[in-house]
Write a structure and sequence with these properties.
Blueprint (H helix, E strand, L loop, with lengths): L1 E4 L4 E8 L5 H17 L6 E10 L4 E10 L2 E9 L2 H21 L3 H15 L10 H8 L3 H7 L4 H11 L4 H4 L7 H16 L9 H18 L1 H16 L4
């Protein structure tokens, strides 16, 4: 049983061993995992692997949980004569471990792991920079279509930018300004629009976007008025009604 819960960016794999999981039990499992999904919703991506092991001799179920988060892998397990009971006890145990990790995360490891997760799981843009709707939008100078087509990257990019500004005290000091992070995100998209035709096609699109963050931050710090004016202009054009 494998599925992707897009509400929480949680990928789930449940593997039965020496047993079968009835359809109604699978539905209950998926419902119970909603609590875990809410707990990991702040992360850009998470992977959960559950091994359901039945021991015929003792007639007990052993449920093993392995949750891969950016920067950390969490484990827990429960045993019971009833599969449902073991699963129900395991999920809250895992939720507690997630909450504990969120209070004391390994920032550096999370940063590296986040890039790896998105490198492995993100959409891949066309290998040929002359193909696809993004390239067509660039050719016609249609930033609005280009930007809208990349809406799926918005939350990931905003979190990446938010972490990156911590490396620049002068930028971090401006985060309290409600529009600063938004302007930085827009700056990255603008640089992506201008450089799309020259991007290296041997790397995934998320890696290339990630590489644009630092020069975008530095540009906004060097020319704050000009760059923020540009970001504000394209944002207003993008949000304007069609027609």
């Amino acid at each position: 049983m494998q599925y992707q819960d897009d509400r929480y960016r949680l990928r789930v794999e449940i593997n039965p061993k020496e047993c079968m999981i009835p359809p109604d039990e699978r539905i209950r499992m998926q419902t119970l995992l909603g609590a875990l999904g809410e707990a990991v919703s702040d992360f850009p991506a998470s992977d959960l692997k559950v091994n359901v092991i039945y021991h015929p001799r003792s007639k007990w179920y052993h449920v093993e949980f392995k949750l891969l988060l950016p920067g950390q892998t969490l484990f827990t397990g429960q045993e019971d004569i009833y599969l449902d009971a073991a699963f129900q006890r395991g999920v809250p145990d895992l939720v507690k471990k997630v909450e504990a990790y969120k209070e004391n995360p390994d920032r550096q490891a999370a940063d590296v792991a986040e890039r790896r997760l998105f490198r492995d799981r993100a959409m891949v843009a066309p290998q040929d920079p002359d193909d696809g709707p993004l390239a067509e939008a660039v050719r016609t100078g249609d930033y609005r279509t280009f930007r809208t087509s990349l809406a799926g990257y918005e939350e990931w990019l905003r979190k990446r930018v938010g972490r990156w500004v911590q490396r620049y005290p002068e930028a971090e000091a401006q985060v309290g300004d409600g529009g600063f992070l938004g302007d930085l995100v827009e700056e990255v998209y603008l640089n992506a629009f201008e450089g799309f035709a020259r991007r290296p096609t041997e790397v995934r699109f998320t890696e290339w976007l990630d590489q644009l963050i630092d020069p975008s931050v530095r540009a906004l710090l060097r020319h704050p008025d000009q760059e923020r004016e540009n970001a504000s202009l394209v944002r207003s054009l993008r949000e304007a009604p069609l027609g």
